[in-house]
Amino acid sequence: MLVALRSFHIYSRRGGMFINSCFAHCQSESQDTWFARDSPQIYSKTIAEAVGDWYFSRNTSKLIDCAYPCDTSCHNIAA
User: Fold this and answer.
1) DSSP of 25-62, one letter per residue?
2) Distances in Å between the alpha carbon of 62 and those of 14, 19, 33, 78, 79?
3) A GO molecular-function term, please (predicted)?
4) CB of 23 closer than 8 Å to CB of 77
5) Could you give phi then psi for residue 36, rounded to 5 degrees?
6) pLDDT tens track of the chain, all 79 residues?
7) Using CA of residue 12, residue 14, residue 20, residue 25, what is the dihedral sign?
């Protein structure tokens, strides 16, 4: 997937992405998760902050997490 997004990541000036290494794939559909105190993060930025930066053109917000299963901010981590 990251190979497929490489040119977008490098060349897109308007697009954004928040690709974390969480096991649960349904976290982005719920605003409860976005705004929760323990929301998943990449480089200390929550989903809500990254999407807000992209949507309001504050930043391109192209955040890519470390390889699975390194992210300790994930919900429902499978061990």
Assistant:
1) S-GGG-HHHHHSTT--EETTEEHHHHHHHHHTTS---E
2) 10, 8, 19, 26, 27
3) hydrolase activity
4) yes
5) -70, 150
6) 889 999 998 888 888 898 888 876 666 677 777 888 888 889 999 989 998 999 998 887 899 998 888 888 877 645 4
7) negative
Partners of 61 in the β-ladder: none
Phi/psi at 54 (nearest 5 deg)?
-65, -50
Residue 79 token pair: 């061990």
Residue written as token pair 């930066």: 53
pLDDT at 76: 62
Residue located via tokens 């497929």: 4
Angle made by CA atoms 28, 32, 38, in degrees to the nearest 5:
90
